[in-house]
Write a structure and sequence with these properties.
54% of the residues lie in helices and 9% in strands. It has 193 residues and is mostly helical. The chain has one domain. A three-stranded antiparallel β-sheet has the order 2-1-3.
Length: 193
């Protein structure tokens, strides 16, 4: 009986765990799961709308178009005021921080739309940009990459940041005067994290 148990054990070991030099072991590559957002699709849709309104405002400054900046700021106010930050999958302190950033975006966009001078509008845009950067990081927006860009010469060499959907530099603080002045300082990418 022991003889049969030993033969059976030997057969199992050599067929399952043993490998010989003559029989290559093929590895099967597993399919990787698709990256899924931790936020709801409704949240991502509304946040993307908010970001797109911000990007339209940025583009108005790239074009040095004051009227377009005013109308884009009004759209940004509408999307910021209508955004339901409670949909963020986070604790209450994160939700409260996000609300504060949204309020800053809304208030500065309202102020921007009242300004007549494009340079004064750009100062409000800087504050909106800073609040949007903090907001994207706070809610951990994970649908797209957001680029944080910087111009060291803006506002008499004080420097200023803005957000972009691409790594290409299109400077909203100088427009056509110095369109490519600036650099990417950060890329906010929570996809797959």
């Amino acid at each position: 009986m022991r003889k049969y148990v030993a033969i059976a054990a030997f057969a199992v070991l050599t067929s399952c765990g043993g490998s010989s030099a003559n029989s290559p072991v093929e590895e099967t590559k597993k399919d990787e799961p698709l990256a899924q957002s931790k936020n709801s699709s409704d949240f991502n849709l509304k946040f993307t709308d908010l970001l797109n309104n911000y990007y339209h405002l940025k583009d108005a400054f790239v074009l040095s178009n004051s009227e377009m900046a005013t109308s884009s700021a009004k759209l940004l106010v509408s999307s910021a005021d209508g955004f339901k930050v409670e949909e963020v999958k986070a604790d209450s302190s994160i939700v409260e921080m996000a609300k504060g950033y949204l309020q800053t975006v809304s208030a500065e966009a309202k102020a921007l739309s009242q300004e007549k001078d494009i340079e004064a509008k750009r100062k409000s845009f800087q504050m909106i940009s800073d609040a949007m950067y903090d907001l994207v990081r706070t809610v951990r927006f994970d649908k797209d990459v957001v680029y944080h860009q910087f111009c060291p010469m803006a506002f008499n060499d004080a420097g200023a940041y803005w957000l972009s959907a691409t790594a290409d530099i299109k400077n909203p603080y100088f427009g056509k005067k110095m369109l490519t002045c600036g650099e990417v300082k950060d890329s906010i990418d929570f996809r797959g994290k």
